[in-house]
């Protein structure tokens, strides 16, 4: 219940937007954002970015930062364009 409330708050604040490790902005549907939010560390998934209209691979990376004797957990998302899967299901070679 607490995790579900945390997800709802994150979705309300971000509106499904995600900033990747290269400071690129991506937007996902509510259901896709929920799956990304609940990803385990070092796991990845493929979702459609509404902003770019492309299928993208998202990898969740959780790591520790040590500054001034304090440990902080940081979550980063590595987003890459998915070259293998096309949104309509037809491989690019068959389209031409």
Quick recap:
It is built from three helices and five strands; from the N terminus they run H-E-E-H-E-E-E-H. By secondary structure, the protein is α+β, with helices and mostly antiparallel strands.
Distance between the termini: 50 Å
- Summarize model confidence as the mean pLDDT: 84
Order of helices and strands: HEEHEEEH
Poorly predicted parts: 91-96
**How can the largest sheet be summarized?**
3 strands, antiparallel
Number of separate structural domains: 1
* Order of neighbouring strands in the sheet with most strands: 3-4-5
- The assigned structural class equals alpha+beta
Q: Nearest-angstrom radius of gyration?
A: 16 Å
State the helicity in percent bands. 25-40%
Strand content: 35-45%
- What is the number of helices? 3
Keywords:
single chain, 96 residues, alpha+beta, 3-stranded antiparallel β-sheet, two-stranded antiparallel sheet, 3 helices, 40% strand, globular
Question: What does this entry look like structurally?
Answer:
With 96 residues, the chain is an alpha+beta fold. The chain has one domain (2-86). 26% of the residues lie in helices and 40% in strands. The chain contains 3 helices and 5 strands. It has helices at residues 2-14, 30-37, 92-95; strands at residues 17-19, 25-27, 44-49, 54-67, 70-81. A 3-stranded antiparallel sheet has the order 3-4-5, covered by helices on one side. The protein has a two-stranded antiparallel sheet with strand order 1-2. A hairpin with a 5-residue loop joins strand 1 and strand 2. The longest helix is centred in the N-terminal third of the chain and has 13 residues, at 2-14. It is globular, with a radius of gyration of 16 Å. Residues 91-96 have low confidence and may be disordered.
